Backbone:
């Protein structure tokens, strides 16, 4: 009766998508017969305050009253009391009898940057990991844990007692897509959208993406941009073709050009300076040159960018508009001072030349 799953893969290999579009539907469909069909799912990312983010995820999963302002604080206080804090938090919650809780920790590798943030932060990271491990080890309360993590951070798991062993026991390594699967991943969405893709463009895309799974999010962005260009400029019956793909820069330039276009559209140089500061604050390079995302609250980004919230919102809104989604949360989510801002994918760190 394993209750801990680590979905591991390279950047852009589809870890989060596998959990959201694969694991969850299977659970709701009764794939774990002994657990039943009733699942509550708390989705979170460690960010800069993993215990608070876990507490908020429990509230958003309706285990605590989301209308009560004190719910997050109450849940966090329970989580902080002991290594069995997550078990106790679920016991005290409003989860229905017969339900199971799945805690999904996306972008788990964010937790490892606490190693460079001092003893206090390291202890909090350790406490958070202990909560997950202890909850998954016990069987009295139906709690399951699934995390997604980049494979280049596997070695870092040994920094925390019990984590490497749990990951080894519950690891699912994302396999590479073969060429036929990549072909389906390209042509399928185009057909669903009512379009066709020219055979020579399909061949070009397959050659450009190669066997490197790190290129899949770049391919996704380039294909989205190609579709947008095709919608703007195509003859009747003309499929997506090389001219549309090359006009947006292909895989090599599409992401960088798109980000530069948004940058150029900002109202003035001050907004562009704020944009540079925001993106630098949201990304980090480790000592071994690995890129890692650093999601941060809007109020913190304003302090780092030395700007007001209205200016920061203008910049962030420009990069999260529908059809861009270079920053998260997506368009439509209100940007409050405590809203966590993040880049949409690690590929932005590598693909944007600015």
Residues:
């Amino acid at each position: 009766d394993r209750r801990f799953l680590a979905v591991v893969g390279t950047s852009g290999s589809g870890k989060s998508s596998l959990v959201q579009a694969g694991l969850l539907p299977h659970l709701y469909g009764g794939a774990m017969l002994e657990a039943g069909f009733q699942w509550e799912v708390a989705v979170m990312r460690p960010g800069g305050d993993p215990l608070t983010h876990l507490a908020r995820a429990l509230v958003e999963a309706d285990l605590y009253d989301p209308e009560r302002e004190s719910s997050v604080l109450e849940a966090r206080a329970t989580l902080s009391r002991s290594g069995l804090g997550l078990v106790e938090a679920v016991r005290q919650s409003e989860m229905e009898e017969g339900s199971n809780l799945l805690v999904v920790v996306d972008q788990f590798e964010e937790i490892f940057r606490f190693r460079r943030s001092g003893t206090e932060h390291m202890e909090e990271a350790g406490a958070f990991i202990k909560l997950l491990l202890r909850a998954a080890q016990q069987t009295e309360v139906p709690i399951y844990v699934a995390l997604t993590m980049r494979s280049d951070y596997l070695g870092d798991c040994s920094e925390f007692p019990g984590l490497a062993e749990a990951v080894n026991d519950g690891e699912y390594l994302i396999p590479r897509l073969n060429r036929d699967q990549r072909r389906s991943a390209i042509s399928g969405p185009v057909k669903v959208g009512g379009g066709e893709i020219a055979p020579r463009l399909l061949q070009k895309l397959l050659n450009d993406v190669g066997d490197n799974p790190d290129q899949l999010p770049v391919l996704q962005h380039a294909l989205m941009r190609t579709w947008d260009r095709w919608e703007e400029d195509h003859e009747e019956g003309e499929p997506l073709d090389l001219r549309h793909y090359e006009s947006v820069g292909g895989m090599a330039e599409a992401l960088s050009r798109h980000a530069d276009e948004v940058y150029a559209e900002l109202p003035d140089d001050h907004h562009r300076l704020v944009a540079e500061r925001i993106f630098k604050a949201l990304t980090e390079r480790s000592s071994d040159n690995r890129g890692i995302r650093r999601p941060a609250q809007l109020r913190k980004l304003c302090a780092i960018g030395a700007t007001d919230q209205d200016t920061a919102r203008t910049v962030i809104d420009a990069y999260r508009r529908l059809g861009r989604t270079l920053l998260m949360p997506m368009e439509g989510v209100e940007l409050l001072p405590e809203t966590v801002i993040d880049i949409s994918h690690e590929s932005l760190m590598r693909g944007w030349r600015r």
Observations:
- Residues 296 and 341 are 5 Å apart (CA to CA).
- The beta strands are 4-9, 39-44, 100-105, 143-150, 171-173, 283-285, 291-293, 296-297, 327-328, 340-343.
- The longest helix spans residues 119-137.
